[in-house]
Amino acid sequence: MKRLIFMGPPGAGKGTQADIVKDKFHIPQISTGEILREAVKNSTAMGLEAKKFMDAGDLVPDVVVIGIIRDRLAEADCAKGFILDGFPRTVEQAGALDKILKEMHMELDAVVNLAVPDAELVGRLLKRAEKEGRADDNEETIKNRLSNYNSKTYPLIDYYKKEGILKEVNGVGSMDDITKEIMGILG
Ligand code: AMP
């Protein structure tokens, strides 16, 4: 059983790696960022609410993303495992996740943290902006996302270290090598 979280700052490559690893384990990748972008595209009530936070590079309120995850984990395809990509991002979200999983009689197996220095991240994100045209990949927003990561998400490393399930991976290097390292750790 693989119940995994992929963590790391914006631009660390967690989405890319989660996308590869999910196919190897035949489990769904659950990206709150993707679900929110889809909601924005479809102009749902949730999308309209989330858009202003996303455009500014701020975190969408905990209650919104916790609701997304609660609903998604209840779907049948998650019974055989999952990769959470971009959730949790605050200690509050991590606590809510623990509660949701407990209610479902599930436990996390590992939290993979992809570490990449800040200086490298800005360059990567600006490159992604050119390629994918994501509305929140501009210099101003990138700075805010990194600062939010450092103040709100970084503390989760300690949170999962204490739970004894944190796996640290160097996120600088070739995509293949990083995948190999992750697969080696996850077994
Ligand atoms: P991502 O694709 O993971 O970089 O997410 C894009 C944006 O969606 C973030 O900058 C946030 O505005 C929002 N978002 C995604 N996941 C979360 C989360 N777990 N908590 C709060 N906001 C989130």
Walk me through what this model shows.
This protein is of the alpha/beta class and 187 residues long. It has a single domain, classed as Rossmann fold (3-Layer(aba) Sandwich), CATH 3.40.50.300. The protein has helices at 14-25, 32-41, 45-56, 62-73, 91-103, 118-132, 139-153, 155-163, 175-186; strands at 2-7, 29-31, 81-85, 110-115, 166-170. The chain is globular and about 40 Å long. The mean pLDDT is 95. Adenosine monophosphate binds at residues 10, 32-33, 36, 53-54, 57-60, 65, 86-89, 93, 136, 145. Residues 10, 32-33, 36, 53-54, 57-60, 65, 86-89, 93, 136, 145 line the site of adenosine monophosphate.
Describe the structure in brief.
The protein has 187 residues and is an alpha/beta fold. Helices cover 59% and strands 13% of the residues. The chain has helices spanning 14-25, 32-41, 45-56, 62-73, 91-103, 118-132, 139-153, 155-163, 175-186, and strands at 2-7, 29-31, 81-85, 110-115, 166-170.
Annotate the secondary structure layout.
Elements: E1 2-7, H1 14-25, E2 29-31, H2 32-41, H3 45-56, H4 62-73, E3 81-85, H5 91-103, E4 110-115, H6 118-132, H7 139-153, H8 155-163, E5 166-170, H9 175-186
Parallel strand pairs: 1-3, 1-4, 2-3, 4-5
Helix pairs in contact: 2-3, 4-5, 6-7
The structure holds adenosine monophosphate.
Adenosine monophosphate (AMP) is lined by residues 10, 32-33, 36, 53-54, 57-60, 65, 86-89, 93, 136, 145.
Beta-strand content estimate: 5-15%
Give the topology string: H per helix, E per strand: EHEHHHEHEHHHEH
Mean pLDDT: 95
Number of strands: 5
What structural class do helix, strand and pairing data support?
alpha/beta
Instruction: Work out the helicity level.
Output: 55-70%
Largest sheet: 5 strands, parallel
Oligomer: single chain
Report strand order across the widest sheet: 2-3-1-4-5
CATH class: Alpha Beta
Give the terminus-to-terminus CA distance.
11 Å
| CATH homologous superfamily identity | P-loop containing nucleotide triphosphate hydrolases
Domain module count:
1
Radius of gyration from the alpha-carbon trace, in angstroms: 16 Å
Q: Count every helix, treating DSSP H or I runs of 4 or more residues as helices.
A: 9
- Assign an overall shape: globular
CATH level-3 fold name = Rossmann fold
Low-confidence stretches: none
What is the architecture at the second tier of CATH?
A: 3-Layer(aba) Sandwich
